[in-house]
Amino acid sequence: MAKLKDKVVAVTGAGRGIGREIALLAAREGAKVVVNDLGGSQEGDGADVGPAQEVVNEIKGFGGDAVANTADISNPQGAQSIIGDAIDRFGRIDGVVNNAGILRDRIFHKMSQDDWDTLIRINLNGYFYVSKAAALAFKEQGSGSFVHFTSTSGLIGNFGQANYSAAKMGVVGLSNSIALDMARSNVNSNCIAPFAWSRMTATIPPQNEEERKRVERIKSMTPDKIAPLAVGLLSDEAKEVTGQIFAVRKNEIFLFSVPRPIRSMHRSEGWTPDSIVSDLLPAFRSSFHKMERSGDVFSWDPI
């Protein structure tokens, strides 16, 4: 039986790459799909109605049902229209995949205010606007699922991505809060950090031979490898899974830990700057995590 039979799912950034593959698989698994894509560049410029409509045409071509939406998710009214199209066209909304995003990579001391503001507006605020619009419908009907796309750039770290990393860690906090706040309404919320070759990853130039080899590894991680987890998390069988962070790397799927206290130290008389430096920091030093990038942690070749 199709995993999403009779469900209505909205996928943002679904005109290309990962979002496209999720929209196609969701439709093949029985869902009616709102295919949202502004059709802009990877830096957030311009608009093109073509990509969203092409995915809709492909879905209809194999007997599925879908509608195109070209709204800008960073505009609250545009985000509302995505959920509005689902309800107006199909009568309900059951799942939301927050996938749309841009890159504005700059080394931190060269990052402009516009680089920061534009990326946060789309990659974090946009997720809030879409989620908030859907949450009202989910609460009324007593069910719903969110899948939000985060990144190991935020979970672990990467060069030149302070804006992107901050937004993607913000997405984790957003998802966790939704999971806590909406559990009573039978709504679950989870995150996926994808490894996949896309327009976004193609914009990051390799700086050395090690980086070039990493790019070649990423090229083997096609967007279709991400879609099964996203679709599975939207299904009724995954309703009890919430507040989790997953990663997909070709045929590997990971479950991430979340921050929890690992050491403590108490002084009944309280602390001073001197005692912090002389006592606390040396005691904690062996438990400090080392600075790494995503590529340092996921250093082996995927199979």
From TrEMBL:
SMART domains membership: PKS_KR
InterPro entries, per the entry: KR_dom, NAD(P)-bd_dom_sf, Peroxisomal_Beta-Oxidation, Sc_DH/Rdtase_CS, SDR_fam
Domain Ketoreductase: 7-203
Taxonomy, superkingdom: Bacteria
PANTHER family on file: BLL2957 PROTEIN, DEHYDROGENASES, SHORT CHAIN
Family, as annotated: Belongs to the short-chain dehydrogenases/reductases (SDR) family.
Name recorded for this polypeptide: 3-oxoacyl-(Acyl-carrier-protein) reductase
Annotated organism of origin: Novosphingobium pentaromativorans US6-1
